[in-house]
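Need tokens for this chain, all 116 residues.
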Amino acid sequence: GLAGFNGMQGRSLLPEIETGKDHGRGTHVVEEESQRSLGAMPAPVRVRSLLTDDWRLTVYQAEGYNELYNLKDDPDEMTNLWDDPAHAAMRGDLLLSMVRESIRSVDQSPAPKRRA
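Here are the structure tokens for all 116 residues:
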């Protein structure tokens, strides 16, 4: 029954355990920070992915390649829609969502004692 400490980013999974349903925000940001190269990617590999029920958007630090997949229509992620003009609005919406999730997950601890 205790409140989490300031800056705690986790949350209780008890609602999922009790009901078997996802009670989260519906989006997840996955961060990859590698010290080694992966395949043709130069080291270090720095990647951010946003996952929703229907989409995966992945942005690589190295310019020239990013990914956008409609998981509902393409669950095996065979067709990269990143450069498809018909999906530009969705790409923008997902990028904004990724930025907001990233801001939300910034460590806020310790709590400031005064305002700057």
